[in-house]
From TrEMBL:
Residue ranges constituting the RsdA/BaiN/AoA(So)-like Rossmann fold-like domain according to the UniProt record: 4-387
Keywords attached to this entry: FAD, Flavoprotein
Protein name: Membrane protein
Pfam family, one: HI0933_like
Record flagged with keyword Nucleotide-binding: no
Domain RsdA/BaiN/AoA(So)-like insert: 188-334
Obligatory cofactor(s): FAD
Amino acid sequence: MQVDTAIIGAGAAGMMCAAHAGGKVLLIDHAKAPGEKIRISGGGRCNFTNMYCDPGSFLSGNPHFVKSALARYTQWDFVELVDQHGIKWHEKTLGQLFCDVSAKEIIAMLRALMQKAGVDLRLQSHATDIRKTDSGFALTLHGPDGDTSVTANNLVIATGGKSIPKMGATGFAYDVAAAFGLPVAETRAGLVPFTFTDARFAPISGTAVPARVSAGGTSFDEALLFTHRGLSGPAVLQASSYWQDGAPITVNLDPKTALFDALRDQRQNYGRRNFTTELSAHLPSRLVEHLGALHDLTGNLADWSDARLMALCDALQNWQMVPSGTEGYRTAEVTLGGVDTDALSSKSMMAKTVPGLYFIGEAVDVTGWLGGYNFQWAWSSAMAAARAL
Ligand code: FDA
């Protein structure tokens, strides 16, 4: 079989690229259905982009790399596409745009676009023996109907990262990159809960609090969730992408309040009340109860000196802890690292040293924040490649 473009990986990036590449396109995926991560994303409603998408919300070895692709296919371009297909959406919070009805609508839209473009989608299929030829690439396609030799002018790798191996995630893109002599930035799990081997938060698991979580010099103000195994919630997932093994994280349990001043004011009016009762005006009572095991919270508020109040407020608003690790690729939403951006053109995603070979989506060393940024990278990088094919 001879095609203009062979794309491996029918996820968000692969389908978007296939739909817009033009020419004869073969799209290969080993899964039973395309876009499985789209289907489960955003609690089944797919947070498909973010209104505030900009390069500052992405991690990469080269923070400038994302600029061109994001500028040439923006969040508003994707919103326009979604609107054209009659998909209703809403902003949930912080610019995060979700489908009103179902993530399946995004998959259906991409499938419709691919069908219109005549894309040959091969599911439950994989490729081996990938090699460069004089005119492009050759590979062997293994599918339900047997093996087929394929030649293609261009080869696009869109197989994503290692997150959630149960859903078919593989390190395939990194292997292809390495086979063609391209560098791969070390990979690790991102947007992932922290674990503590002593299960210290098990007694308050399920308790959530609006918090500021900081790691590696970057802070996020969102919800923090205590779990049986450690910490989760959006603020924690975000911070995890900036965390290095063995480093401390800092938690501010009440970032919106000048807690010391507030408790001092309360002391004037309600000094005869229990300290824990007054602290519960700021934090969930289950959490206050738990904090009582870590700090001396006894006495009436009037008994608390400024110095004692100050020390406790510092402990609650500047709480340092060292996670034992993360939940890893098993539950991580994304993979940090990937095909080194130095090896790719930021305009087209083509490998600088291998004409015709492209890497798009999560396979590349570009990782977005939580909130629709990763899908926007998939759409933008896919369009960058599609326009160059
Ligand atoms: P993606 O992983 O989507 O696709 C890769 C495809 O390649 C898959 O279809 C896979 O089967 C196939 N493949 C892999 N190896 C192969 C091989 N060797 N041979 C053939 N095929 C192979 N992001 C966001 O912006 N908003 C959100 O709401 C969410 N929610 C979310 C929830 C959960 C639970 C997860 C795990 C992730 C998210 N994300 C997200 C992240 C988002 O899903 C992710 O960044 C994109 O799906 C990446 O798109 P890609 O197309 O690059 O990879």
